[in-house]
């Protein structure tokens, strides 16, 4: 199996989009009521948090790579 680098921004985005899907699936199944506008804060907030997470992870990797090259 080929290994790839871990991308936490994609993980956060996927979790928020999955939470949105679960909220609407529960509404469709009749388990609870989900207002139609609930998708906006979940998706927008999740994508913003994913962007911050990805930028932070990139900064940490970039700084760690520079220090690793000096050894």
From TrEMBL:
Task: Please report the organism this UniProt entry assigns to the protein.
Answer: Streptomyces olivaceoviridis
Regions crossing the membrane:
35-57
Domain of life per record? Bacteria
Q: Which UniProt keywords apply?
A: Membrane, Transmembrane, Transmembrane helix
Per its record, how is this protein called by name?
Integral membrane protein
